[in-house]
């Protein structure tokens, strides 16, 4: 059960987010290791100042451009994402439009069912990931399970809060990968085509903002935006920012 946190508490947003994750774990949505993953990300969020910095906004713009111009974009969802940005994911999927697929490292039929119910209670969209009639080559754990009509047939995949081996396996299938990762040094960050170094609760609304803005432009202009992107340069910019910020603090 969520506790009452006063809105004037200096850690209000962070504490409310922690409560959501904790409550979702108790309901069988988030795996217990998801709490560890969230805490690790929160530590990096402290370092960037708990706000969407310019490099995150630019990456969100590129992500939006790639998703709009994709032939079959898919938003890959795990328990943490469902717990934190369910409504925002649905809104983004409708705006692009894109498919939603549930994909879990610690996969059980019960967790898949509960996460699916969270979505179907909010949207009439078909949610993929239940059949798991496809397999991503090179992955021996359950995260390799996917839907043939979803992730396996996609050309662009948004994989927030990802583990690096699946990101790498998807890249081997010639898919464009967009990730949201607060750790710019992770395997996923370095493997993805676009890395948004930001908290998922800010990044998903940011992508949606840019989708709405860019949809006013012609497709050629949108593609030119994404073609100019250099993800290695983006990550270098993030590391420079973190270095300067730490030096200024101490």
Can you describe this structure?
The chain is of the alpha/beta class. It has a single domain (about 55-230), classed as 3-Layer(aba) Sandwich (Rossmann fold). It has helices at about 10-25, 30-50, 55-70, 80-95, 110-120, 165-170, 185-190, 200-215, 220-225, 230-250, and strands spanning about 75, 100, 125-130, 135, 145, 155-160, 175-180, 195. A six-stranded parallel beta sheet has the order 3-2-1-6-7-8, with helices on both faces. Strands 4-5 form a two-stranded antiparallel ribbon. Strand 1, helix 4 and strand 2 form a beta-alpha-beta unit. Helix 3 crosses helix 8 and helix 3 crosses helix 9 (about 220-225).
Number of helices: 10
Q: What is the mean predicted local confidence, pLDDT?
A: 92
Poorly predicted runs of 5 or more residues: none
Name the shape in a single word.
globular
The name of the CATH topology is Rossmann fold
Q: What is the correct CATH architecture?
A: 3-Layer(aba) Sandwich
- The proportion of strand residues reads 5-15%
In short:
With 250 residues, the protein is of the alpha/beta class. Helix content is 54%, strand content 10%.
Question: Features of this protein?
Answer:
single chain; 250 residues; alpha/beta; Rossmann fold; 6-stranded parallel beta sheet; two-stranded antiparallel ribbon; 10 helices; 8 strands; 10% strand; globular
